[in-house]
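task queued by scheduler; priority normal; single chain, no ligands, no partner chains; default sampling; output format set to structure tokens
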Amino acid sequence: GVPRRVVPLGQDVYSLGDEEVYGFHTGEGGSGGVRLHYYSQIVAHAREFAVPLIETIIEGLEPACAPGERRRLCVLKKSLIWQRTLGGVRL
């Protein structure tokens, strides 16, 4: 599908710092834990790039997370690796 909003050509873009990325994934205050609220959109639209993209996001978040949160992300990462190993199986 076509995204509802598209960034026009020639627009300036910038990378978020580590704290900003972590803040985006934990919400205001950061007390709710890490949330990948866009997970289903990545899986639906990124196709073969979905798993490596989510793995990269997880690897970027892990250093800032508490041990319990890192364990949750580790479980998700292992699940993604398993799904990638199966290849053609739909996520």
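post-processing summary
- The chain has a mean pLDDT of 85.
- Residues 67-86 form the longest helix (20 residues).
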